[in-house]
Amino acid sequence: MSASLSPLREEIDALDTQIVELLARRFAVVRRVAVVKKAEGLPSVLPDRIAAVKERAAAMGQAKGLDPDFVSNLYQMIIDEACRLEEKHFASAP
C-alpha cells in the first residue's frame, strides 16, 4: 500500500465507523417509532413520509455536492430496512 494512501484510508475507515454508528442510532429510533405506531393504531408504512424523507435527503445531498439520485437510492435502502424493522415489530405479540 502506498504510504500516502494510508492516512486517507484511516480517515475513510473512521468515517465508515461513524456512518455505521449513526445507522444503528437511526434504527434504534425506528424501533421506538414502531412501538408508538402500534400503540396508536397507525400503519407501519406511511408513503407520504417516505417520499418526504427521500426528497429531503436528496436535497441535502445535492446541497453538499452529492448526486441526488444516489442519495435517494441510498435512502430507499435505509427506508426499506426501517420498514422491515417496523413490520417485524407489528408482527410480534402485542
Please describe the topology of this protein.
Layout: H1 6-40, H2 47-63, H3 68-91
Structure, explained:
The chain is mostly helical and 94 residues long. The protein has a single domain (6-91), classed as Chorismate Mutase Domain, subunit A, CATH 1.20.59. The protein is 81% helix and 0% strand. The chain has three helices and no strands. The protein has helices spanning 6-40, 47-63, 68-91. α2 runs antiparallel to α3 (68-91). The radius of gyration is 17 Å and the shape is elongated. The model has no long low-confidence stretch (mean pLDDT 95).
What keywords describe this structure?
3 helices; elongated
First-to-last CA distance = 54 Å
Q: What CATH first level would be assigned? A: Mainly Alpha
Looking at CATH, the homologous superfamily is Chorismate mutase
Q: How is the main sheet built?
A: none
Rg: 17 Å
Classify the fold: give the CATH topology: Chorismate Mutase Domain, subunit A
Sequence of secondary-structure elements: HHH
Enumerate how many helices there are, as a single number: 3
Measured by DSSP, the beta-strand proportion falls in under 5%
Query: Can you tell me the CATH architecture?
Result: Up-down Bundle
Helix amount, in percent? over 70%
Shape descriptor: elongated
- Arithmetic mean pLDDT: 95
Helices and strands: which structural class?
mainly alpha
Q: What are the segments in which pLDDT stays under 50 over at least 5 consecutive residues?
A: none
